[in-house]
Design brief:
This protein has one domain. About 80% of the residues lie in helices and about 0% in strands. It has 9 helices and no strands. α1 crosses α3, α6 packs across α7 and α7 runs antiparallel to α9.
């Protein structure tokens, strides 16, 4: 990839936006010491130009750090029977790819395997899915501009998928701190609606990415 723009877009959408959303949620949580310190620092900023410049840089960097932690949690291994976000991430990928394969794939055997409940069949479909993505990434780094554009397009959908998945973390935090207001207020239902919306959007963007990857694979096979 000659242009860093797809990766810059990825960082903004999948890391900085969820990190900023998390800061906004924590900002209203009383008793959370780090945010209390940050609020004090922001309030201390006077008319000095360097302070005005430092605050947005600090907030952006902190949002990026939080988003990167979410990225790590996406692939954090499960602890025994306790399944975490890695399980959710893999489930979304598997369901979205199977749906895309059913609608846009050409291999009837793979379509049949995608509907199978057997673990061996699921592993074969996952291996094929990973191979398609690795093929696209390799060609984007070594092949023509058209392939670069295809990868950038798929990478954008992946970034948006990650954004909606990472927005689940601050939404869960919002739900936790709103438990006492579930019956007397509207924060709880809003958080629940946000969880459902973000989950649907995450799946939708993931399916869109795999549709593009499958279509690219078909065109690449025809040109080859």
């Amino acid at each position: 990839m000659d242009s860093p723009l797809p990766f810059f877009y990825y960082d903004i959408v999948s890391r900085i936006v969820p990190g900023a959303f998390t800061l906004a949620v924590l900002w209203n949580v009383n008793g959370f010491a780090p945010i209390g310190w940050l609020r004090w620092f922001v309030n201390q900023a006077g008319s000095e130009s360097w302070e005005k410049l430092l605050i947005p840089v600090l907030l952006t960097g902190l949002a990026y750090l939080i988003g990167t932690v979410f990225e790590v949690l996406d692939y954090f291994p499960d602890c025994g029977k306790l399944q975490g976000m890695k399980w959710v991430s893999e489930l979304v990928d598997a369901k979205a790819f199977s749906s895309a394969l059913q609608g846009f794939g050409e291999d009837d055997d793979l379509k049949r395997l995608a509907l199978s409940k057997k673990e061996d069949d699921k592993k074969k479909v996952k291996k094929h899915r990973d191979a398609l993505w690795q093929k696209l990434m390799y060609k984007a780094g070594t092949d023509s501009t058209n392939v670069n554009q295809a990868f950038a397009h798929c990478h954008r959908f992946q970034a948006e998928q990650k954004m909606f998945m990472h927005l689940l973390y601050p939404t869960l935090i919002f739900e936790f701190v709103s438990l006492k207001n579930w019956l007397s207020g509207f924060q709880g239902p809003i958080g629940l609606a946000a969880l459902l919306l973000f989950s649907f959007c995450c799946y939708s963007r993931c399916r869109r990415r795999w549709i593009q990857v499958i279509e690219f694979s078909k065109l690449d096979s025809q040109s080859g």
